[in-house]
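Re: [help] complex structure
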Amino acid sequence: MSTQEDTQNCVFIGKKPNKNYVFAVQTQAQSHNEIFIKARGKSISHAVDVALIVTHRFLTDWEIKDMQAITEEIKSKETDKIDRVSTLTITIRKNG
Amino acid sequence: MSTQEDTQNCVFIGKKPNKNYVFAVQTQAQSHNEIFIKARGKSISHAVDVALIVTHRFLTDWEIKDMQAITEEIKSKETDKIDRVSTLTITIRKNG
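Output below.
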């Protein structure tokens, strides 16, 4: 597996319906044994939904292996103010 | 520490401002070395916010030790329909 492919096993959760991201994860699962599901701010709850839906219903031989939360600082271009936003990364992995 | 106290080291995140829950966690921290921050559905992102705010700004000798996501099934009283909702439990613990 090339380095380029390794950077691709990541699904960013945004404002689309959860099923879009469930499908994206399933697609990644065809070529990876480990996928990172990432989200910021209010999308974090959707990331948890997606990880649970995928591992319970579609990729039943996969499991949630790790969750890491960090605070990211984002500088607003307009006001120069620094905003802090929580970021969650959920690692799911194929068993065995 | 009695069993009753042990069941109290849990803070449920709802729809109030985050600072209320940050305060609740700080209060619990006076009598516990481990606290569970729990949330369902859309409140999950607030639980992550609260855990990060507490461990970064207020209880700097505490750390996020674990995060567990599960799916809970809730039966609607009106329609008898079963709804699934994601639940996140964040464990924070005092170092040493």
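Strands of chain B lie at 10-12, 34-40, 62-75, 82-94.
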